[in-house]
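agent> Task received from the user: take the single chain below, predict its 3D structure, and emit structure tokens. No templates, no multimer pairing.
agent> Plan: (1) validate residues, (2) run structure prediction, (3) serialize to tokens, (4) report one or two observations.
agent> Step 1 OK, no nonstandard residues flagged.
tool_call: predict_structure(input=
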Amino acid sequence: MRLLFLLYVAAFFGSAVGSDCAAAGKPNILFLFSDDHYAGDIGVLSKGEVRTPHLDALYERGFHFTGNFCMGGLQGAVCVPSRAMVMTGRSLFRVKENLAGERLMPTALGEAGYVTFGTGKWHNGRPSFKAAFSRGANVFMGGMSDQAAVPVVDLLADGTFTPPRKDGTFSSQLFADAAITFLDDHAKQGGDKPFLCYVSFTHPHDPRTAPAEYHAMYDPAKITLPASYMPVHPFHNGEMVIRDEKLLPWPRTEAAVRREIADYHACITYMDAQIGRIIDTLRQTKQLENTIIVFAGDHGLAMGRHGLMGKQNLYEHSMRAPLVFAGPGIERGNSSALCYLNDVFPTLLELVDVKRPAATMGKSLVPVMRGKAKTHREALLLAYRDVQRAVRTDEWKLIVYPKINRTQLFHIAKDADELNDLSAHADQKDRVKGLMDLMVKLQAELGDKAPLTSATPGDGVFTPPAR
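)
tool_result: status=success, residues=467
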């Protein structure tokens, strides 16, 4: 028995040492995650509409994807399944939103010898955060909050959480402060192990408030209205009066939308300033050159486009999300290759040479980043509850509204703003059928069992509620 015990101890410590040795020399990872962030609202992509000097620098030295999508959501809080997909690499229809029993990205990195730290928004439950990270500070266990009064907790060494507290600091600074403290401490301790530092901002999600000086940077009267601005969506899409859509009355006026966008941009610029502080800390502590930085958003947001305000729709503005990688081994470039957010997990693991969990369903983007592939996915299936489905190819997009038996067809290559619905055009009949067949095929592959038509469809008429 004593011999068996000694063999067990030797195996345990041998594997631990082996893990640390295997991790030695691997790049660190800084994962920056924004909330409700329209993919085009990065300075270098927005023609100066929004100011993001620090994100611009990442985009200019890294590799970014303009065809990155959230697969969607089966509930109104799309961020919950989106974050679950990022953390597991699994699809919308095969992931547990509370992450119970799932193999998580931080866990896989931790088992490979990484120190794992998390701060900011975690919308998937306390048990999963504890399972994912070895350390956590200023963690917000919720979906949205007053940006200047976010209740946060810390994950203690014994696996318990501190009581919630509020200190009046704006959220992005609060989370950046925690990340900076972690990075400073890691450097002071010698940095023998690589780290994963996960920073999940609540900006620019509403309430869209930031320090006054950032709001002063954007005059609503000078905001350019989106090309697809509409006072009201032309029909009932199945989710017209959810909380996000009630943020402005109907019809949406030009002045109201401009004011919302100005506040939205102020929050993005403020978040960008905090990202700059984190990256400066990496530079000052001499950890920047060995750190892979990934910046992503959980999904997009309408902000007046198509008469909508939220993310409970399948238009490009709401499902497309920012994504950029920068750091050692990553060449400067960009790609319009179609991909999902759940592809980030296997991509990061390949970049740091850590074996991916067998349950991961995403596909690594490394071949595209290294010029070995131009395409990544031939088509994407997008979904919102049981009221909307879409299929997206490089050139085309078909959106189906099963509850009202309505479709929209957009030639994305020529109509990026999705303004010209071609679904009723006689010369597009075969294309619509082909895309419907492709949608059915993707549903079967991904485990989506929702019907695409209704025997008793609604009329699709939207009557704005009285306020």
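agent> Step 4: summary for the user.
Residues 272 and 457 are 45 Å apart (CA to CA).
agent> Done.
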